[in-house]
Write a structure and sequence with these properties.
The chain is of the alpha+beta class. The protein has helices at 47-67, 73-88, and strands at 10-11, 20-22, 25-27, 29-30, 32-35, 38-41. The strands form three sheets. Strands 1-4 form a two-stranded parallel ribbon. A hairpin with a 2-residue loop joins β2 and β3 (25-27). The longest helix is centred in the middle third of the chain and has 21 residues, at 47-67. The relative contact order is 0.11.
């Protein structure tokens, strides 16, 4: 099985420079990568991932607040659960 250099990433938990070469193409080191919708950084902290999720939730909450005056309480609860449960439960 051959590695695909266009779809490969390297992330190191050290300050050393390491060159990874696949089929003559060098893969540059990244400080963070997104893998299966989770952002992982080189220190294995999830600060960027949490920031991203909170930003998405803030946008959804703003959208819901703009249209909430046109809905009943039950409809607002249903939409809020659909927005946030899908975002935070995985």
């Amino acid at each position: 099985m051959k590695g695909n250099p266009d779809k490969s990433h390297t992330i190191l938990s050290t300050n050393e420079k390491v060159n990874v070469n696949i089929d003559g193409k060098y893969i540059e080191n990244s400080s963070s990568v997104k893998l299966l919708s989770i952002t992982i950084d080189s220190e294995l902290k999830f600060k960027n991932h949490i920031k991203s999720i909170c930003g998405k939730a803030r946008g959804k909450l703003k959208a819901l607040s703009r249209v909430s005056s046109f809905m009943t309480l039950g409809q607002r609860k249903l939409i809020m659960n659909a927005f946030f449960e899908s975002q935070f439960s995985y």
